[in-house]
Amino acid sequence: MVFRLSIIEAIALNEMKDRLFLSLNAYKDILPLSKTARILIKPNLNANMNALTGNTTDLRLLAAVVEYLKTRGYKDITIGEGTNSGYYRNNISVIARLKVDALAEYYGVKVIDLNYSEPVYIDFEDGIKAGVAREVVEADFMINMPKLKTHFEVGMSVCMKNLMGCLVGQENKKKTHLSLAANILNINKKIKPDLHIVDAVISMEGLGPTRGTPVKTGTIFIGTDPYLIDLICARFASFDYKKVRTLAEAEKRGIIDADYHRFVKEFKIEKVFCFAPPKAGPLAGFIHSPKRQKYFLAVRNTAFFTYLASTKWFGYLLFISGLRQDNFIEEEMEFDGLSFDINKCSNGCVKCREYCPVGFNLPKEFDKDKCIECLYCYLVCPVKAIGFEGDLGFMGEQLRQYDEITRKVT
Ligand code: SF4
Ligand code: SF4
Question: What is the b/e burial string over 300-328, where b = at least 16 CB atoms within 10 angstroms of the residue's CB?
Fold first, then answer.
């Protein structure tokens, strides 16, 4: 078997673009011949917490991939994602909140919410059929762009797990949980992205996928085999692959064999981290144990529980008890602009420039009309020299949980 895998190190936007472009040139042979081929990019937009928290795919990496494809002349590029069920149920567009739609507009590419796509049915365990988005199945070339993060149910979320976002709506996503690892493998059997680009620039350790801790790992993995990349990411995070349920399932099915292990063992990795494991609190740990989960799911899938979970007070109770990782804040952000305090900005660290996905020459040049309102610059400034004008809305929750750590870790 011929494995293809590249690892690059990058933190700042220019490093990311330069090194990614060089690395992607090594994969030119697998790019579609037709410049009008339908290219689908599938990031991880699991929640409305942005990339700096370690939760979702970095807009800078997304921008770099789009730019690369456009430079090569591709004309039909779509960014597609079906965010997690809770946001869908609450009618919250994570794509809009993370400014992926603004980024897509800036670069002149399309964006779709796969939760509203026409389903194509695939086989799950126990004879169940689940619908994945037609656009994913029919794409001529698919690029999977997961975030590297811990996941309290499966251990780690990388290439394999990211494809859960191809399922259409909550009604299909919840079918996965009946046999989580096996069904993630079933999705991967049907959907086979041509290329995987893993955002491990700021990863997440601890209680992922949403309430973990960001860790600056400054790395991007590129390759064609999701099992191999997930295996190498387990080594990168110093995780026992047998405890990552998707990898254990892939080995059980005979997909991961001795060749994989030999390659991963011998592959040279410059940096290795020791991620804190995704240990859930006592209540969540008790309920989500594989032994008890089927009883929990039986309760969760009743109409009464669905109603209860949709109420504000019960949702908040689930959030503070740790049984739910997301807090579905209704209020949108209202952005009136940014201010730059030259007196505070004395160290000229240019971190704001390094993190701006559209490449503004910050802090000197800011163009409100072209700004995509991602707030990366505002969130990374170590001396709070950048002011936000407007109403933070849902973004206030990210600041409450992550403001201090984001400024330190980036
Ligand atoms: S200026 Fe700031 S808010 Fe605007 S696109 Fe750049 S990083 Fe995002
Ligand atoms: S990140 Fe803050 S301190 Fe650094 S250059 Fe930008 S405005 Fe100045």
Answer: beeeeeeeebeeeeebeebbeebbbbbbb
